[in-house]
Amino acid sequence: MLALLLRLNSGNLSSTDNSNLSEAAMVTSLAVDGCNFFKDERVDAPTTRPQSIQELDVRLSVVEDLALKILYLSGSLSISELSEKTRLSFEVAKELSTQLRTELNCQVTGVNGYVPQIAITSQGRARAMELFSQSHYAGPAPVSLESYVEQVRLQSVRKMEIHADGVQRAFKHLVIGDETLRKFGTALNSGSSIFLYGPPGTGKTTIAETMSRVVAEDAVWIPYAIEVDGQIITVYDPAIHKRAAEAEPESRDERWVLCERPAVLAGGELTIEMLDLQFNPVTKFYVAPIQMKANNGVLIIDDFGRQRMRPEDLLNRWVVPLDRRIDFLSLSGGKKIEIPFEMLVVFASNMDPAELVDACFLRRIQTKIKIGTVSDTQFCEIFRRVADENQVAFEPGVPKDLIDFIRGTMKQELRQCYPRDIVNQVLWAARYEGKKAYLDYAAMTQAVEAYFLARP
After folding, report:
1. Which of 106, 141, 151, 306 is the most exposed place for a label (fewest CB within 10 A)?
2. Which of 138, 168, 186 is the last residue of a domain?
């Protein structure tokens, strides 16, 4: 399935030397803590909890059916517990229990303090079984599609203001030039789309992930689920949506969760089917596609051009979303719904963009940034940082010897991944031999022989 942004690069970031770095970056760590990367106008959040059924943005039948299914699964619960399970206020839960009692679907079995305890009746059980045949969803109450659209628009990534000092803090562990940082900052402020391209091993994926950390410092509201024509679409995904550290208001609408701006990473496993609503024929409700889960955050398409679908298929699917910031999703009956496409989309590829997609698609990707290789000085600094982090002592001449081997013997450019990969080879060999890792010329020779393909 999808590789989420929980996948982090195992190396460390290098810094300091910024000479001749306009097109180079080395990424080796995502540790960025305690920084406010940008100024952002605080969005008006769903801080007011509906106190009556009339104040809800969904129909009575939707929450009533949900309450009955929850009661069926629980057997017996208090009004407070019903409120907690549905994420509705106590007042709304009390109204729902009254409605269910009026229809003889539940009955009061006792009182815990001043709070009634209710249980499902045989008639309610039969009705609940009918409802489960239509949908097994029995989670928090959904919000309406209209409320979701409005909130996503309010939280648009285009409303962020990201400044130079914030970007520099976020990328402080990368060897990267001021000009490239300026490009990153400009692209992030666009709230649109970015194409990172360049040779393999230059850190494009982790640069994209670091960009997402800049965005993630802000908090947005994500609904547990939305309702469309009686159908449920789950949106909140704990594997993707990380709860914000800041406290949620006491009076909030608990059908929404305050989270960091989300980040989703999809690689070569991405298919065209994953970009539409995922209907489960067993549970009979929908799961939002990756771009919907990434709304108000970042969606990274890694290794673009190597997916199981052709680049042209993605082009045709996303021409309108990238241009007009709206997307159309299909329900199983054929009905289409319109949702916002409010995210920063980052495409990362080691292929030539001009050969990969046509000019129509490239026009819709607002910023193109080439991530190139590094100079000798940068390479040595990266090597030192990686060795220090892994506590690997090395002879002073080893970095230069490695450069001579890569350039002279292998006829290759200096890529940012090489120091990390060579140090890893030395660590693995030392572990096998049961001794402390030390990088001298002999250890380097063994490492490069294991890492690089032999030249014919």
Report:
1. 306
2. 138
**Domain match, 217 and 113 both:** no
C-beta atoms surrounding 34 within 10 Å: 6
User: pLDDT (tens digit, 9 = 90+) per residue, 416-425?
Assistant: 899 999 999 9
Number of domains, the chain: 3
Taking CA atoms, 249 is separated from 57, 88, 216, 257, 416, in Å, by 20, 15, 20, 11, 45
DSSP state letter for 282:
T
Q: Are residues 165 and 252 in the same domain?
A: yes
DSSP SS3 for 67: helix
Percent with pLDDT over 70 in the chain: 90
Q: Taking the CB of residue 180, how many other CB atoms lie within 10 A of it?
A: 22
pLDDT digits (tens, 9 = 90+) for 225-256: 999 999 999 999 999 999 988 778 888 999 99
Residue-number span of the structural domain to which 403 is assigned? 376-451
Instruction: Report the predicted TM-score, pTM, of the whole model to 2 decimal places.
Output: 0.81
Strand, coil or helix: 323 = helix
Last-in-domain residue among 370, 389, 417: 370
Buried-state track 198-237, b at ≥16 Cβ within 10 A, e below 16:
beebbbbbbbbbbbbbbbbbbbbbbbbbbbbeebbbbbbb
Asked if residue 17 belongs to a domain, the reply is: no
| Same domain (yes/no): 192, 111 | no
